[in-house]
Amino acid sequence: MARGDVPQDSYHLVGVSFFVLGLGTLLPWNFFITAIPYFQGRLAGPNSTLLTLGANHTGPADTFNFNNWVTLLSQLPLLLFTLLNSFLYQCIPEVVRVLGSLLVILLLFALTAALVKVDMTPRPFFSVTMASVWFINSFCAVLQGSLFGQLGTMPSTYSSLFLSGQGLAGIFAALAMLMSMASGVDAQTSALGYFITPCVGIFASIVCYLSLPYMELARYYLARKPSLAQGRELETKAELLQADEKNGIPSSPQRAALTLELDPEKEPELEPEEPQKPGKPSVFIVFRKIWLTALCLVLVFTVTLSVFPAITAMVTSSTSPGKWSQFFNPICCFLLFNIMDCLGRSLTSYFLWPDQDSRLLPLLVCLRVLFIPLFMLCHVPQRSRLPTLFPQDAYFITFMMVFAVSNGYLVSLTMCLAPRQVLPHEREVAGALMTFFLALGLSCGASLSFLFKALL
């Protein structure tokens, strides 16, 4: 089929479908961490108020270290399935991986919503919730990896839309929390509505995925030979991550559009030159070229996940109880972080500074370690060791803005610089290595959060 005979995306339905699928891959993580106050309220004991969305709870709930465990059990599956992806993708068909993952995530979120109406003692509730977090994020890791592979056969426009959906997941969760709190209904109904929202989002993702084979444009690209799609999977993931991965959470689609274009009509012309291509790149040689950039990526995510949300979700407003005090954490912790993080990632679409040869990048990354004591010294009522040096709300808001912008920018910058430090035929390996170090940084940060919580 000639280039001009490529089907049109009628009513932009294919684009909308991939946007919703991108949103669906990161909804679970964001909805769980944004609802930390709800879970703390449930874990405070049978005599406590069932839940007040957005309110910070003190006391017995801290004995479960919920913030820390939900972060750790959300990130470990990403690290595990990063290592198991190649094995899983060879053994399990794509449609089973995608639809199976979406259905399991939907069922587990429905269980989470149903538990709002179930009276349970704290320990069984904690155990059930942690099991749900582990399995939901495990299937999210499989889902995201499978969709990355499918995007390898699509034009860059749809990769950009997928990335945009992922980038908005955190903002969507924070706004859902605020709407639930402002609805004026009782606390139990508010929480039920909040957890039904991602169920609707995951169901919409299932509908979008099932509808793709019925769209002419999607059939045209997705029907391409499987060997090509499999061969492009890691390369596609590398380029998507290069375009601003966040936790995997990307939000700068413009750069993805520059790197992901795959012209199916040019494949036959490349075949005669195939014997002249360089041999399989060495992982060790590629690592030697990008080790400093990879280490910077690990440190950025280690710092971020060590305090967000484990420590930052504990910060409360220093003002007297009222509306602002109730809305402080959802707005200043989760909504502000996601907005400023997206802003930081979008900056790499306009400039890349410092460049790959500069030693300023490791310095900037190391300076972010200062955010750990800064947040620990903010207004956290549940403390027994450290003093409160920054009680005013303005301190926390300022720290959060710089923290989030620097996280987004430095993550995006390292992902963009890594492919520039290797030869073109080594980029696939570089992308795979950066994916592993991204997951490693998330897991290290989640593990360190236990230590910093204990030091408070």
TrEMBL record:
Localization of this protein: Apical cell membrane; Basolateral cell membrane
Location (main, coarse): membrane
InterPro entries: ENT1/ENT2 (IPR034764), Eqnu_transpt (IPR002259), MFS_trans_sf (IPR036259)
Matching Gene3D superfamilies: MFS general substrate transporter like domains
Pfam families linked to this entry: Nucleoside_tran (PF01733)
UniProtKB keywords: Membrane, Transmembrane, Transmembrane helix, Transport
Family listed: Belongs to the SLC29A/ENT transporter (TC 2.A.57) family.
PANTHER family: EQUILIBRATIVE NUCLEOSIDE TRANSPORTER, EQUILIBRATIVE NUCLEOSIDE TRANSPORTER 2
Record protein name field: Equilibrative nucleoside transporter 2
Organism: Pipistrellus nathusii (Nathusius' pipistrelle)
